[in-house]
Design a protein that fits this description.
The protein is an alpha/beta fold and 364 residues long. 42% of the residues lie in helices and 11% in strands. The chain has two domains: 300 residues, Rossmann fold (3-Layer(aba) Sandwich), CATH 3.40.50; 30 residues, no CATH class. The N and C termini lie far apart (80 Å). The relative contact order is 0.16. The N terminus is likely disordered. Keywords: Oxidoreductase, Pyruvate, Thiamine pyrophosphate, Transit peptide.
């Protein structure tokens, strides 16, 4: 009888779904709902007051920022791998190390705001709403890419995001004209935030060797400016909110310099260690890594546990691997579509090949 009772209890218990130990741990912990942190004071130019020196981080936002930053980091590392495997060709500018800039900027503006950036655009592509699949597939030149495989690393677009731009500085005048078109205001009154992501190097030249003044937030001359710690997502968020409020109040444009760092070279063709030492890179990774700084804030203030963050890491890696599988197996655009999307209505026309006697006829 006792054996039968034990067997019956065993069958009942086996029918109950068992949660993973880590899930049970997360559910049983008493986490804080939010925490307040001191953040670095911004240097100001032509401003009487600047962003606050404290910031509140909720548990929900903390986990969201952490996952987004980890996703951008892992996406860029996967792009590095795909480039070395020759799935990605041509120019490829990676942004790992600068994750706090993209996440903090997006957290400080509205989804309806308009953004245009330079060639180092992958982070913005993701925070603006493009999927990892569409980004990696664009890098590999596949039909499932956000620009149907025809734009590559520097030319990705989505709603209210006007892409990376391959020409250095092109986003400045283009962004000004976008703002003018939407606001119909004089240029000096436009609600624009001009952002300089200062990662200490212009291609392979240190900023101290290339400019008489490295206070880029003052380069607007009569325009006000901010110098922001671009390695702290909360600093970037609060500074962006301040700058956005300043612009929306009708005071005109503002310049915001984000002091950050890129771990990769200028592009994938640049090893990144001929003009800076490996020790310098490791020193930044060890002391100022934006993901590490956010993780420390979250864990030390009891917004989440290390185990919960590790679960996020596993989830992100799987999502990146799945996207990479798609980006390497999705078909390339058909040859017949080579001239599509040049004109809005795709009219048929002839394209001369490398040999002037060979022509390709585009059919719409």
């Amino acid at each position: 009888m006792k054996k039968m009772l034990v067997a019956a209890v065993s069958r009942v218990l086996s029918g109950v779904s068992q949660k993973p130990a880590s899930r049970v741990l997360v559910a049983s912990c008493n986490y804080s709902n939010d925490a307040t942190f001191e953040i670095k004071k911004c240097d100001l130019h032509h401003l009487e007051e600047g962003p606050p020196v404290t910031a509140v981080l909720t548990r929900q936002d903390g986990l969201k920022y952490y996952k987004t930053m980890q996703t951008i980091r892992r996406m860029e590392l996967k792009a590095d791998q795909l480039y070395k495997q020759k799935f990605i060709r041509g120019f490829c500018h990676l942004c790992d190390g600068q994750e706090a800039c993209y996440v903090g900027l997006e957290a400080g503006v509205n989804p309806t705001d308009h953004i245009i950036t330079s060639y180092r655009s992958h982070g913005f592509c993701y925070t603006r709403g493009l999927s990892i699949r569409s980004i990696l597939a664009e890098l590999t030149g596949r039909k499932g890419g956000c620009a149907k495989g025809k734009g590559g690393s520097m030319h990705m677009y989505c709603k209210n995001f006007y892409g990376g731009n391959g020409i250095v500085g092109a986003q400045g005048p283009l962004g000004g004209q976008i703002a003018e078109a939407y606001n119909m205001a004089a240029l000096w009154k436009l609600p624009c935030i001009f952002i300089c992501e200062n990662n200490r190097y212009g291609m392979g030249t240190a900023i101290t060797r290339a400019a008489a003044s490295i206070d880029y937030y003052k380069r607007g001359n009569f325009m006000p400016g901010l110098k922001v710690d671009g390695m702290d997502v909360l600093c970037v968020r609060e500074a962006t909110k301040f700058a956005a409020d300043y612009c929306r109040s009708g005071k005109g444009p503002i310049v915001m310099e984000l002091q950050t760092y890129r771990y990769h070279g200028h592009s994938m063709s640049d090893p990144g260690v001929s003009y800076r030492t490996r020790e310098e890179i490791q020193n930044v990774r060890g002391k100022s890594d934006p993901i590490m700084l956010l993780q420390d804030k979250i864990v030390n203030s009891h917004l989440a546990s290390v185990e919960e963050l590790k679960e996020i890491d596993v989830e992100v890696r799987k999502e990146i691997d799945d996207a990479a599988e798609f980006a390497t197996t999705d078909p390339e655009p058909a040859l017949e579509e080579i001239a599509h999307h040049i004109y809005s209505d795709n009219p048929p026309f002839e394209v001369r090949g490398a040999n002037q006697w060979v022509k390709f006829k585009s059919i719409s």
